[in-house]
Design brief:
By secondary structure, the protein is mainly α. About 75% of the residues lie in helices and about 5% in strands.
């Protein structure tokens, strides 16, 4: 059982070492992966916005054509009524036709106003489409440059990263799923990515809280997993700092001889 626990502790330390090396490699990429993803998302939003604007513009243009068709129908009706007005039999018929013609004329004016409003709205939409396309083109150029930069960095580190990932897979086979899940959770909650640390100068290597001597002894024995009571990190070893004691100064024999001569 002791060997099993010791192997698990050793495997945890190995996984932490590999993860720290992977973190260092990924740190070289900086915020590039996130920037690339943000640009890709922004490009999708711009493309969607352009599609929506084109759809709205299509509806606006269809409305204009529909209104123009109504105006033509109104004018045809007015022409017909003007012909009928020549054949009326009394003033009442004349006034009725005249009133209908006036209403049709108002309908034409309303339709013409709606056409002007739609044309103005269409112009705004066209301007937005042009501006959005320009912004989209700029984002595509930015994305191309960021991707090229990221690809260059990844090409330099890909071999090392793949090698470390294989080593990690091999090391995690010595860990049960529950322990590995706990390890990953601690890493996620840690600002520096350290879930496994050693005791340095009597303190936790993660949060620097003091580790009691008895717990340090338990850590050295490796009979069970010991975690820091303050930060929850796994404590795997205690670093020994050897202090070299200064040798006592020897009294000079020359001084003793000089004293003897005086006597």
């Amino acid at each position: 059982m002791e060997n099993t626990v010791a192997q698990r502790i050793e495997a945890l330390s190995k996984v932490q070492q590999i993860d720290s090396e992977l973190d260092a490699i990924r740190k070289l990429r900086g915020d590039l992966p996130e920037e690339v993803q943000d640009l890709e998302d922004e490009i999708v939003r711009f493309e969607t916005r352009i599609d929506n604007l084109n759809a709205d513009l299509g509806s606006t243009e269809a409305n204009i054509e529909q209104l123009k068709g109504k105006i033509q129908d109104f004018k045809k009706r007015i022409t017909y009524l003007e012909e009928q007005q020549m054949n009326v039999r009394n003033n009442r018929e004349f006034d009725a036709i005249n009133k209908e013609m006036e209403m049709l004329d108002l309908d034409i004016q309303v339709a013409q106003k709606k056409i002007r409003d739609n044309e103005a709205d269409g112009k705004v939409k066209r301007d937005k489409i042009v501006n959005t396309k320009e912004a989209l083109e700029e984002r595509r150029k930015d994305l191309q440059a960021k991707k090229a930069e990221l690809d260059e960095i990844m090409a330099e580190s890909e071999v090392d990263e793949q090698k470390l990932l294989k080593q990690r897979d091999k090391a995690t086979k010595h860990l049960d799923e529950r322990l590995l899940r706990s390890y990953n959770k601690i890493r996620e909650n840690s600002s520096n990515g350290l879930a496994v640390v050693s005791v340095k100068r009597g303190a936790c290597g993660g949060c620097f809280a003091t580790v009691p001597p008895q717990r340090q002894a338990d850590i050295r024995e490796k009979k069970k997993l010991i975690v820091c009571e303050h930060c929850g990190r796994v404590l795997t070893e205690v670093e020994v700092i050897e202090e070299v004691e200064a040798a006592p100064k020897r009294r000079s024999t020359r001084g003793r001889k000089a004293t003897a001569k005086k006597k």
